[in-house]
Write a structure and sequence with these properties.
By secondary structure, the protein is mostly helical. Helices cover about 75% and strands about 0% of the residues.
């Protein structure tokens, strides 16, 4: 398990170094709402200055004002995950991922949470969605291949490993790291 977490962190770190510009996605268009924008900004500020309780309250108010905005759900998911509250973390992360299905990072984070809590079938769904959101996200191929290997679905895992190998991504070091993580 420790090796899987280390592998996931290495892959996420590599993904964070991509040259692709990440632009915020609002998902469904919504009417401008200054109150919502103010509360969201203040909630983020409170989170970063360390007042987690106030931030959570403000994120909840954002959700009351606009249930279609993915950002407050995602932020609450992160906060509940850090606090070890798995049920709420998974609920909010999956809601954010559902509200903004084209957001690669929401899908990836949600898949990572489900992996962390050993709910691998759901993790596969979100990692697959992450790959659909960004076809160039080769690190997700590795994660998916590892999960399929763990489930014993060797044909699916092998096809993903072959894709990585054909694209020159699978290095001997990476192969060794994945094998030692099993």
């Amino acid at each position: 398990m420790r090796n899987c977490l280390i592998l996931a962190l290495v892959i996420l770190a590599a993904a964070g170094c991509s040259q692709r510009v990440v632009s915020p996605s609002l998902g469904k268009e919504r009417m401008p709402d200054n109150r919502y924008d103010y509360l969201l900004t203040e909630a983020l500020r409170q989170k970063y200055v360390g007042d987690i309780n106030e931030a959570a309250t403000l994120f909840e108010k954002c959700i009351e004002l606009d249930k279609t905005g993915a950002v407050p759900y995602f932020e609450l998911a992160q906060m509940y995950s850090a606090a070890g509250i798995s049920g709420k973390s998974l609920k909010y992360a999956s809601t954010a991922a559902r509200l903004d299905p084209d957001n690669y990072w929401y899908q990836l984070a949600c898949g990572s949470l489900f992996t962390q809590y050993e709910i691998k079938d759901s993790a596969l769904v979100y990692f697959t969605r992450a790959l659909k959101a960004d076809r160039r996200a080769v690190e997700v191929n590795g994660i998916l291949a590892g999960l399929y290997s763990e489930k014993g679905e060797t044909e699916k895992a092998d096809s993903l490993f072959r894709v990585m190998e054909s694209e020159g991504i699978m290095t001997p070091e990476m192969s060794l790291m994945m094998i030692s993580g099993l």
